[in-house]
Backbone:
């Protein structure tokens, strides 16, 4: 597993539109179905990446805590399922239920959405404000499989708290790191 860092899309970038199948509900969902006037978290995830598996519990906790404050959440998997069948839509449905995802988990078969977001790795996190402008991109916290840093979601939680308090975007933002997206 080669460690890949996120590309750090420029702050202020308008959230790219999408309309993708949700492997949880079976419906197609667009950005407008997910976005709220408080803000939206877009996460590039997959089923098999050990970095995603490591943070899944905290992702679920963060989504629970901040959905209650009006933030929209969505997970998107863009991996090439021909070469990585464990990331296919049927297994995404099972995975979402098994780990308790409390948000839609969309399948980006064409990989166009990952490209539009300049996503590079799983997990990759993006926070957009109520106007759908990029406020934060980067890591959930400094925890990685095998290191001693606590899994507490500190960086993502701090950014969400500051956005909800109408503060400027954090000046220091660290890239996320994980498995590279499996491109076709």
Residues:
């Amino acid at each position: 597993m080669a460690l890949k860092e996120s590309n750090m899309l420029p702050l202020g970038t308008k959230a790219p539109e999408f309309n993708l199948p949700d492997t949880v509900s079976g419906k197609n969902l667009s950005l407008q179905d997910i976005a709220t006037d408080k803000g939206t978290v877009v996460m590039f995830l997959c089923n098999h990446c050990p970095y995603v598996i490591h943070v899944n519990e905290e992702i679920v906790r963060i989504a629970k805590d901040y959905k209650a404050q009006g933030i929209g959440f969505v997970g998107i998997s863009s991996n090439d399922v021909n070469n990585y069948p464990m990331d296919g839509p049927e297994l995404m449905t099972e995975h979402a239920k098994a780990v308790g995802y409390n948000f839609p988990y969309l399948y980006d078969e064409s990989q166009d959405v990952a490209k539009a977001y300049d996503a590079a790795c799983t997990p990759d996190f993006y926070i957009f404000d109520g106007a759908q402008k990029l406020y934060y991109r980067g890591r959930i916290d400094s925890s990685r499989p095998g290191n001693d840093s606590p899994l507490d979601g500190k960086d993502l939680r701090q950014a969400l708290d500051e956005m909800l308090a109408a503060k400027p975007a954090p000046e220091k933002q660290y890239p996320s790191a994980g498995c590279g997206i499996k491109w076709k």
Residues 3-7+35-180 form a domain with the Glutaredoxin fold (CATH 3.40.30.10).
